[in-house]
Amino acid sequence: MKPRSKRALIIIGVLAAVGVGVALVLNAFNSNLVFFYTPSQIASKEAPQGRTFRIGGLVKEGSVARDGVTVRFLVTDTVQTVPVRFEGILPDLFKEGKGVVAQGKLDSDGVFTAREVLAKHDENYMPPEAAEALKQAAATKARAAGTLVGARP
User: Fold this and answer.
1) Is 99 helix (H, G, I), strand (E, B) or coil?
2) CATH number (domain holding residue 79)
3) Predicted structure pTM score
4) How would you write the pLDDT of the chain (153 residues) with one tens digit per residue?
5) What span, in angstroms and rounded, lies between the C-alpha atoms of 5 and 9?
6) Which H helix or E strand runs over 129?
7) What gap in Å lies between CA 85 and CA 64, rounded to an integer?
8) Does residue 65 share a domain with residue 126?
9) Residues 6 or more apart from 99 whose CB is under 8 A from it?
């Protein structure tokens, strides 16, 4: 085999190895990527069905129901609500009317089954995504109320 052919085979082998490495890294990155959605985005079918993601908002007042270790509650962004089911021990700071972020999957019946529930850790903190989502929901609600008021004779 000529030296030129050997060099070409080595270069092709190195490129193939780098390509396989990049493909494995991208695959691992994609499978560990978790997106954040609001209840309004879930209601408008933007959230993936059967894939893990996070939902954030406020725990709706009067919605927490406990049955042994199974807890059911509603997460709201003041515009839409999503039912959540969680089996396990909730964080100590989990309360109605407070911020929450849950990670899990959306079932075909529209119930979000959480594997993990995170509660805000002090009175001033809310995840940036959840704070922005609540701000946008409030703005949408205000625009809708303004449109309805302007439509009256």
Assistant:
1) strand
2) 2.40.50.140
3) 0.64
4) 788 888 989 999 999 999 999 999 888 877 777 788 889 888 888 888 878 899 988 899 999 999 988 999 999 988 899 999 999 888 888 888 888 999 999 988 889 999 999 886 555 566 677 777 778 877 887 787 766 555 444
5) 6
6) helix 128-151
7) 10
8) yes
9) 56, 57, 58, 59, 119, 120, 125, 126, 127, 130
